[in-house]
Amino acid sequence: MVPRLGVNVDHVATIRQARRGSEPDPVAAVVLAELGGADLITIHLREDRRHIQDRDLRVLRETARTPLNLEAAITGEILDRIREHRPDQVTFVPEKREELTTEGGLDIVRHSQAVKAAIDFCHTLGVSVSLFIDPDERQVEESARLGADAVELHTGRYADAPTRQARMHELTALKRASTETVARGMHLHCGHGLNYANVTDVAAIPHMEELNIGHSIISRAVLVGMKEAVAEMKSLIVAAHAARHLP
What we know:
single chain, globular, alpha/beta, eight-stranded parallel barrel, 17% strand
């Protein structure tokens, strides 16, 4: 199965919020992303609402033709939004107010009680749950024990590796955690820092089901357009999957 491409449109909203105006509209960007081949749409409703707003979640839930994946911290207010809008999937992530972007995976072991309660809450609503974690086998094991449907392995260290040797080291860690994820019966997702230059090796990991990519696609879209930027990324993912199955 070719991995699904989840297009994160947060940074379309970032540009809009720079002027507190109405454009560019993430909803319009989603239409073009879907035309370009997006398999699902990802948005992160942060507590500080620095980019995606409640209105965006509401309208996208009503209009997106592809499944909606909501990234969110585990807070009472966000759980209320999940109950109200019922996205197709929730990916629970850590969140700090001062960070520029998510800096690491959610520590499932440390916060197991809160994570378990959030997973159970979503399941009562019929919402699938993915946990954004570092590629650590202990975190994978705990995610499975708590009943997560999927894990999204944090690819930041892989993406930021300064040398090819370091990148291959991080890729090995991702592969090891991927094997453990599948062995424990969970769906395998990856994301964070993936771009047109580094996505191929991750897309080729066996049993990869979903890649969530945002900043790189939006940056490319500024130059070539949203539909084209998404189509280019999708073609790389398809090619990586095909190459893995060559004799």
